[in-house]
Amino acid sequence: MIVRTTRDITGTDRQVDTDHWTSKRIVLSDDDVGFSYHETTVAAGTETPLHYPDYIEAVWLIEGHGHLIDRDNGTTHTLAPGVMYLLDRHEHHTIIADTQLRMYCVFTPAVPPGSD
User: If we measure between CA atoms, which residue out of 17, 36, 22 comes closest to residue 112?
Assistant: First the structure.
């Protein structure tokens, strides 16, 4: 059994910070469970282009408002608490944070320690 809190992770190598977002990696590949689980906070007023060619990602937004742009087809989706999106085809996407966004993300295969 693994029990962790975000407080345990804050300030450790399981926290990754960029100019636009902070990811607290609660579960990673070295936990040997086949997926990773992250709490990600995106700063208000940012526009973040992303693409994960090696992962499938499910995201559940629990705080904030913004937009998700699927750059592969130009579709825009509203982000608000309770919205889930699944990047099941490795879509190129952009997150626009009108306010601070907080979300929980599951990746498969699991993200290794030290990844951006």
Answer: 36
